[in-house]
Amino acid sequence: VRDLRFAGEAGVDFLYVSYARSGEHMGEVRSAVRKLVLDLPLVAKIERHEGVSHLAEIIEEADGICIARGDLGIEVPIGTVPAIQREASRSCRRAGKFVMVGGQVLASMASNPMPPRAEVSDLATAVSDSLDALVRSCQTGHGHFPLQAGKLAAYVLLHRDGYEQSR
Known about the structure:
Oligomer: single chain
Structural class: alpha/beta
Order of helices and strands: HEHEHHEHHEHEHHH
Number of strands: 5
């Protein structure tokens, strides 16, 4: 409760719910937020198998979700993470909820001004999956090229409809 009160006083825009495990869990958090008369959108952070297993009910209770791909790739077979990201994004679209992706997107830009093509392709795939926001903690938290990473992410987002529009 102390952390929620601080969030309200600090004027935060969203409240991340780490390790979201079920719709019931999200409902408990929402209830606590309402008791403090806070109006904060809840972002369910999907980073464990349990969250994936209860994704539909979590999406129903949350205002949006964040697929924490780095953490999730440790919890589930790594090859399933792209499919989970895609399904979560589609489910959020159907429910009218937003979806964010975090975890090693443009990670090399923490120390390099230009990412490898594979990272740019990864970002473009996330964008084509109807991504609403990109979480870039490593690049902005301690990286040397946060502005370049932001500009590149914006460029890919603005040109999501193809090569012809970017010329």
